[in-house]
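Fold this sequence, please.
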Amino acid sequence: MDKVINTGLLAYGMSGKVFHAPFVSAHQGFNLAAVAERHTKQAASDYPGILSYNSPEALLDDDTISLVVINTPNYTHYDYAKKALLKGKDILVEKPFTATVAEAEELFALAAAQNKTILFYQNRRWDSDFVFVKEVLASNKLGKLNEITIRYDRYRAVIGPKSFKEDPVPASGLLFDLGPHLLDQVISVFGKPLSYTKVLANNRKNTQVDDYFHIHLQYENGLQVYVIANMLVAGSQPAFVIHGETGSLIKPRADVQEEQLLKGIRPGNDDYGVEAAQNIGLLSLVQPDGSIKTEEVTAENGNYLQLFDAVYDTLVHLKDYPVSQEQILTQLRIITGL
């Protein structure tokens, strides 16, 4: 490696333990130097030699750390991003980037003034199922597209313990939780929509925030894209349903990385990122004689380590980061209705 980037995590809860620390520590271009842990001090047992600060502010004061991962509660992203930039750090920020478009634009201007880089943690671009869908779309096997539905469903009827997601504070609710994932996938392929309509609902008993959303995005050439998330779905549905002039694709939500990481399976294991066989994609194509042939198609393995490859290439080799500021602004404008 040309350079090793000293990296700190502003939190070591589920996000830090599952989505960040395993990859920062596994990547040769990064050194997992420090975390912030207010209460339980667990990081040192997981990563011997790591520094554990009592607060994010204390970590930001460490001049040896050049990259800071901002994985604190949603409503704090703007404040910690601003503090980190003013301390001269490059930052990798969890979704949602900020609660408002104005906050995002202010941070972009500040980063430019500080000559620092903002990177966005949109890990679902590296899900096995989405990478598979992109490959099918790029092949043009489906012809001119007319309708796409992407959904992310769960069954969680009980109000969760994370107050920053369940209390009516900035950037709470399902739209701010899963909307950045689904919208980023759409925007990364199709760009800014011509128009959109949005429906939110509160369906769980005693919920104070939205737990359902449905966004209809309209694109050129008649393409209609629907992104949907629902926290009261007891049965499984396809995550991707795509229809085109010459075929259709149906794909379950199949990426196993989060599940594996929660079990302690790490990148580098032989079965890491390998989809379950029952989650295979179904590709139906119209044949020259008008008949329809359906085949099962297997996805390549998912690997979030590729996100950190992109972070490293941007910071060290000055390559363009796959997730752009304009894409984040488009996402936030749709989420916030601006």
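The chain has two domains: 5-122+306-336, 128-301. The mean pLDDT is 96.
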